[in-house]
Task: structure prediction
Amino acid sequence: MSCKNTSWQYAEFQQVGTDYADTAEVARYDSRHSDFRDLEVEALRVLDAIEIRNTDVLIDFGSGTGTLAILAARRCRRVHAVDVSGAMIEHAGAKAAGQGVANIEFHQAGFLTYEHNGPPVDGIVTTFALHHLPDFWKGIALKRLGAMLTPGGRLYMHDVILEEPDAIENIAAFIDMLAKKGGASMKKDVERHFKDEFSTYDWVMDGLLGRAGFTIRSKNIDGGVLGTYLCVKN
Ligand SMILES: C[S@@+](CC[C@H](N)C(=O)[O-])C[C@H]1O[C@@H](n2cnc3c(N)ncnc32)[C@H](O)[C@@H]1O
Result:
């Protein structure tokens, strides 16, 4: 499914919110995010959750600085790391090469524009990336991801996803918690996330996933704000 020949396809290469095309932003990403998450521990948890096998081919959408793609590549046959930011792709490529990891293909593309050439893949992961698309385009993206997955293939998604009751209070508590960990500039970044980017409700995400042909195997919304979905393609 693609609308790429229309003049109204969402411009996913245009940076909205944090500018991940900025090389300085990319260079400080890992250390900045380590103020509030352990990127490697998180990535290993994702790979365990999707029960990655050494024969698997995996796509990571919004692969960023490549931490998950590199750890995945050590445990599976091939990884496709997809990101709209050329600066991220370059940074992750250099990081992989520096660690002697050669079974990752890097693609400067996005949820709406990546064309997968090859047989359907076994797993797709995406962490903190789908919120870059407005909801209608999330739906299109999820249908595209479904078409790239083999039946029974796994989709793991982790992102800012909101529960409806107390959303405002939960967001405020989340911003406060991150500000305590990362200071004023972190507070500004998280506030920008809610002002400019497109996090959605879990009930919207449930519907989008179901309509895109996924069964939700497990779902957790931590603090009413951080969502983790493990899904299987029907
Ligand atoms: C917050 S970072 C997350 C990076 C990494 N997955 C992680 O968990 O740390 C968001 C990433 O998504 C990328 N991105 C933004 N819009 C995208 C799109 N439409 N398709 C694919 N990647 C996108 C950004 O360039 C950036 O590298």
